[in-house]
């Protein structure tokens, strides 16, 4: 799976403004965010989510419980503010 295209899609849907931020525009203008997010996504998908701690003898590795939204939050500072998604509010 190509994590660069997944990162571009995630940024595209996060920004929520296809009139200004096309996937091509994102690819050309947000290289740092794409690189950071794609590396984070590779790490995210390489870890078995069913395992939170691995232990071998004296050594132990603890995995953080991260979500895709957490990964996007790591690159928010490198991106413009998104257009908020509208919804229905019931009173």
Low-confidence stretches: none
Provide the residue-averaged pLDDT: 87
The main pleated sheet reads as:
2 strands, antiparallel
Q: What does the overall shape look like?
A: elongated
Would you report the number of β strands? 2
Provide the succession of SSEs: HHHEEH
Could you say how many structural domains there are in total? 1
- How far is it from the N-terminal to the C-terminal residue, by CA? 43 Å
Write the layout of secondary structure elements.
Blueprint: H1 3-15, H2 23-29, H3 31-46, E1 53-56, E2 59-62, H4 68-73
Antiparallel strand pairs: 1-2
Helix pairs in contact: 1-3
Written overview of the protein:
This is Phage gp6-like head-tail connector protein. It comes from Clostridium thermobutyricum DSM 4928. This protein has 91 residues and is mainly alpha-helical. The protein has one domain (3-77). Helices cover 46% and strands 9% of the residues. It has 4 helices and 2 strands, in the order αααββα. The protein has helices at residues 3-15, 23-29, 31-46, 68-73; strands at 53-56, 59-62. It has a two-stranded antiparallel sheet with strand order 1-2. A hairpin with a 2-residue loop joins β1 (53-56) and β2 (59-62). α1 (3-15) crosses α3. It starts with a helix and ends in an 18-residue tail after the last helix. The mean pLDDT is 87.
